[in-house]
Amino acid sequence: MPLILNIETATQYCSVALFDGNRTLLEQSKEKNAHAEIITAMIEKLLIEAGAIPSMLDAVAVSMGPGSYTGLRIGVSTAKGLCYALDKPLIAISTLQALAYGSRNHIKNNPEYSENTLFCPMIDARRMEVYSALFDINIRQVRETKAEIITENSFSEELKLGHVIFSGDGATKCKSFFKQKPNAIFLDDFLPSASFMVEIALKKYNKNAFEDIAYFEPFYLKDFIAAKPKVKGLY
Prior knowledge:
By secondary structure, this protein is of the alpha/beta class. It contains 6 helices and 10 strands; from the N terminus they run βββαβαβαβββαβαβα. It has helices spanning 35-50, 69-86, 95-107, 156-161, 169-174, 198-206; strands spanning 4-8, 15-19, 24-28, 59-63, 90-93, 118-124, 129-135, 141-149, 164-167, 184-186. Strand 1 and strand 2 (15-19) form a beta hairpin. The longest helix has 18 residues, at 69-86.
């Protein structure tokens, strides 16, 4: 089985996971938005724990977005640098698809959920806007990824047909809109994790679904808009 390093930096907390086909080793930060300072140390610690060295990796998988502009650039730059230096293939994983995998694993033993259950991972995109998509019970995407403003009428049709499992930091701030809708289920204290990427990464590895390291860019979904500096004179 291939040894794959998985890197997740699309949200507030970064994590790395190493998967060898039999076990998943995970390092997850507890400090928000400190990706640049800790990502390489986390990778080094994970490899030491596994008794491995970088050259033993068969591939590097990275969360490709949507998500934090800065976080994505840090993760993708780190992954591309490793792949280039080690001459290893790069695998790109949808951040929302990985969250959907994690959500399904979280509720898979609950008999309440059925074939009609949908998963709606959400990533905070500031104010009342989120990045989201819909996935079925087999984690097939059934609605496109988009940035949207959530209201009390959002997902009305889907919630009439069955349960919708909402997860991610974007879902937390939208919870109040769905108080009166019993089919809306929220996974509290649910954090993104590189461990959610491992199954998808292995499937892509086996299909040789690799990215061109020279040209690959994160999926930002929205253009980056720099905030106006608050320091007087920096305009």
